[in-house]
Amino acid sequence: MRALSATRTSLRWLRRRLVVVAGLLTLAYLLLPNVVVTVFSFNHPEGRFNYAWREFSTEAWTDPCGVAGLCGSLTLSLQLAGWATLGATVLGTMIAFALSRYRFRGRTAVNSLIFLPMAMPEVVMAASLLTLFLNMGAQLGFWTLLIAHVMFCLSFVVTAVKARVMSMDPNLEQAARDLYASPVQTFLRVTLPIAAPGIAAGALLAFALSFDDFIITNFNAGSTVTFPMYVWGSAQRGTPVQVNVIGTVLFIVAVAAVLLGMLVGRRRGRSAREIRT
Predict the structure, then answer these.
(1) Do 211 and 250 share a domain, yes or no?
(2) Are 94 and 214 contained in the same domain?
(3) Closest Cα partner for 191 from 177, 203, 173?
(4) Over the chain, what HEC string results?
(5) How many domains does the chain have?
(6) Rg, C-alpha atoms of the chain
(7) pLDDT single digits (tens) 217-272
(8) Do 265 and 221 belong together in one domain?
(9) Which residues are paired to 43 by β-bridges?
């Protein structure tokens, strides 16, 4: 009877917290590869392949650029992602405001075409861009990659910013104009700060997509080697431990950025509640 009662109690507890348990299990499943990468960044493998645990070592952490070409490809990927994020964010923000605030001929068609790169298989877009560059006689390299990444990330930025712009209250901008603010002042002091979270979300998404992209980069890179291409190439010859180190550092930076954003959001919410009270 005690065992039956304990089982029923456990089932009731699980039923009440089923969503939380499922969420935690899903999160653990998603984070498991990152944990494996972190653990094997402290490994001292025997041979070229870092697939089996041998012994604990911090040698790779003391010299993360000890492998030829690793930090060079990482720097190139960061530069490419930075410029692609800047271009996609500026163009995407303008397109999002145009689609949300103005009526013009072809608006419906443009609105539909914006989502096409998101729905299209990435290999199709990569092959199409390669064909375009070859027909134009462009030399494949950093600039063709930059154009390709901007075009690829543009749709995601437009989607994020447009969702934010459409949820904005137009009465706030009208109130600014009623207080004799010029159109530029209204945009800089009212519209832009309200749309900033959507713009920041689109920029972060564009940076992550550009830095992580492999298929479009592989088609249009020429002799340029980005970090994902370096990892793919080294995996065939033996992945160095330094790759795990770089991956761990990038994961820590991403988690820190998310936590910082949550902290800032909570502080702003607390300040807003204090002002209201």
Answers:
(1) no
(2) yes
(3) 173
(4) CHHHHHHHHHHHHHHHCHHHHHHHHHHHHHHHHHHHHHHHCCECCCCCCCCCCCCECCHHHHCCCCCCCHHHHHHHHHHHHHHHHHHHHHHHHHHHHHHHHCCCCCHHHHHHHHCHHHHCCHHHHHHHHHHHHHHHCCCCCHHHHHHHHHHHHHHHHHHHHHHHHHCCCHHHHHHHHHCCCCHHHHHHHHHHHHHHHHHHHHHHHHHHHHHHCCHHHHHHCCCCCCHHHHHHHHHHHCCCHHHHHHHHHHHHHHHHHHHHHHHHHHHHHHHHHHHHC
(5) 2
(6) 24
(7) 999 988 889 999 998 888 777 788 888 899 899 889 888 888 887 787 777 767 66
(8) no
(9) 56
| Domain around 120 | 68-239
**Are 8 and 87 in a shared domain?**
no
Task: Give the C-alpha separation, 216 to 231, whole Å.
Answer: 15
Query: pLDDT tens-digit profile of 3-12?
Result: 666 677 777 7
- Tokens 């030399």 locate to 139
